[in-house]
């Protein structure tokens, strides 16, 4: 299959290096420097090394059979406004605000949740820091997910079908809205969610608010949050990585979604962590400008 991947971050590189073993992959990135390095070195992940076509414009995008969108939430609107109308689209984002952006997209749309951990160490190198699966669910359009699962899956990089995209995304959102902001604010690895009693209490309160907003079982979701925090204990959350590297975070798409679902007075802990992360973003911006 001809597959285009928009986004040269950790997830874009990880998906590219695995899928290029069986498919014709084109990677669409922002910077000319990243394009040059990938053209010279390919994409590498430990002992995996794959050559892919790489572009900084929309060249050949209309020739792709599938376009995987692996950019941050705040780039979604820009990306979907300039897509060819024929290929199927697969969205791999944290948060849920992209749901409104794809409502009017005519292409068949599939939503995905990435359970893998990935760390981008250079413009062409990524480290696979945690193993899981990529879960897929149809949002709209006629897509045979079963054929994707069979055609994309590898032993260490499986794809799984989910019947409900809403259930799939809300379960991931609960985890992200607890682990991401707290690890970002306190500058700690995921394991502190369960090992530090004070952070653990804050995590529990955030989980309770999110479960009320999304009408999910607190008992079940809290158990999932603790399990994932423990099993990805040495990982650094994507929000902490974004802060450390001076990038805009996805706090509005994650905690902001919960706040928009509940009134601010009903989600004081989400309000606090949202403002705290934005404050850290601003501090980083001022530090970079000085």
From TrEMBL:
<keyword id="KW-0566">Pantothenate biosynthesis</keyword>
<comment type="function">
    <text>Catalyzes the NADPH-dependent reduction of ketopantoate into pantoic acid.</text>
</comment>
<protein>
    <recommendedName>
        <fullName>2-dehydropantoate 2-reductase</fullName>
        <ecNumber>1.1.1.169</ecNumber>
    </recommendedName>
</protein>
<dbReference type="InterPro" id="IPR013752">
    <property type="entry name" value="KPA_reductase"/>
</dbReference>
<dbReference type="InterPro" id="IPR008927">
    <property type="entry name" value="6-PGluconate_DH-like_C_sf"/>
</dbReference>
<dbReference type="InterPro" id="IPR050838">
    <property type="entry name" value="Ketopantoate_reductase"/>
</dbReference>
<dbReference type="InterPro" id="IPR003710">
    <property type="entry name" value="ApbA"/>
</dbReference>
<dbReference type="InterPro" id="IPR036291">
    <property type="entry name" value="NAD(P)-bd_dom_sf"/>
</dbReference>
<dbReference type="Pfam" id="PF02558">
    <property type="entry name" value="ApbA"/>
</dbReference>
<dbReference type="InterPro" id="IPR013332">
    <property type="entry name" value="KPR_N"/>
</dbReference>
<keyword id="KW-0560">Oxidoreductase</keyword>
<feature type="domain" description="Ketopantoate reductase C-terminal">
    <location>
        <begin position="169"/>
        <end position="281"/>
    </location>
</feature>
<dbReference type="Pfam" id="PF08546">
    <property type="entry name" value="ApbA_C"/>
</dbReference>
<dbReference type="InterPro" id="IPR013328">
    <property type="entry name" value="6PGD_dom2"/>
</dbReference>
<comment type="pathway">
    <text>Cofactor biosynthesis; (R)-pantothenate biosynthesis; (R)-pantoate from 3-methyl-2-oxobutanoate: step 2/2.</text>
</comment>
<keyword id="KW-0521">NADP</keyword>
<feature type="domain" description="Ketopantoate reductase N-terminal">
    <location>
        <begin position="3"/>
        <end position="138"/>
    </location>
</feature>
<comment type="similarity">
    <text>Belongs to the ketopantoate reductase family.</text>
</comment>
